[in-house]
Design goal:
Elements lengths: L5 H5 L5 H16 L13 H10 L7 H19 L6
Helix pairs in contact: 2-3
Length: 86
């Protein structure tokens, strides 16, 4: 099993705070059934997410999906006059 550290990933994202956001988003996706981009090797979703970041399979662009979803929800709520469900 290859050991991955935070330092391996810091060069792939802007800062450690963004790293937390990217890794947690990807780990949730994996935990919810998304196929990992790296071999499983009996790792937990958080470790898989960090390995994917270290291997350049995942980057901060993954966060844009959340922003797009929120923007769409707000626009739909404005049209319908309801409170947005974020």
């Amino acid at each position: 099993m290859a050991r991955v550290t935070v330092e391996d990933c810091l060069g792939k994202v802007a800062n450690r705070f963004e790293l937390v956001l990217v890794a947690s988003k990807r780990a949730r996706q994996i935990a919810n059934g998304a196929d990992p981009f790296v071999p499983l090797e009996n790792d937990k979703p958080t470790v898989l997410a960090l390995r994917e970041i270290a291997d350049d399979h995942v980057d901060a662009a993954i966060l844009a999906d959340d922003l797009t979803d929120m923007h769409v929800a707000v626009e739909e709520a404005q049209v319908s006059g309801e409170r947005p469900q974020l």
